[in-house]
Amino acid sequence: MTASDQYLAEYLQWLTIEKGRSRATLEAYRRDLLRLIAWMDRHHLDVETVRERDLEQYCNALRRQKRAESSISRGVASIRGWFAYLLVEGYVELDPSVRLKGGRRGRTLPKPLGEEEVESLIDAIGRATPSDLRDRALLELLYGTGARVSEVVGIGLEDLDFDEELILLTGKGSKQRLVPMGTSLKAALRDYLAPGGRSAFPQARKDSRLFLNARGGVLSRQGIDLIIGKRALDVGIERSRISAHVFRHSCATHMLAHGADIRVVQELLGHVSISTTQIYTAVAVTSLKREYQNAHPRAHD
To answer: Which residues does the annotation mark as catalytic?
Structure first.
């Protein structure tokens, strides 16, 4: 293991223990910094000898590879965080990343599914097998609550309140919030939790998590992604257009399009700042303008 690899391992451990960063964030930092370390190795550099001009050349190399500016910006943030840590710990005497700048991050509007697409996707799932019942409940929950995939993975049976029709979600920073259990979601969850559903998975009683995989273990983020891809393929929706996060986008956009108050959507999604939620307002307006242009007889010449 090189010194750079050792410093990276220590940095990631520090982010985990001291900063409580999520697994997804740590993995993104690890990928970004391993890419930098590999580049430094090829140019016979290390954290002690690399300079500002070298890091600028590295960023320019990423641009020549046609990487998205948002990806470059995230990489720059990872680099700056790492070198700030190395400076404080005394591993380097100078921080070469202080003035390093990433690409401009433009606002990318999410691409929600159409309401008819969501309906056809969920309605196409049968009720013949435990997996069918699970998948239907899973997609109903993703769309019905706008929950993050990490929040869905963590839902336990004790987090469901059928009497009050509420679900307890645990989000970023272990912050918890209650979200409503709509009629369709409630019915799908009851079907899944009835005999022949969740209980039919192997060793289902050994784990209290809501969603299980075929072996009876906890359904992972990757498992959810595979389910979504398979169900999308069944109804002819392109795999590149859909993910767990797209259900979250779709939930927010459709609610706003039907007149929901933006602060209600903010609370539902667990956004700290309403400015994060406002992006969905732009999506709803964009959809409205498109439909207007297509349908109104005097919208165009």
So the answer is: 148, 172, 245, 248, 271, 280
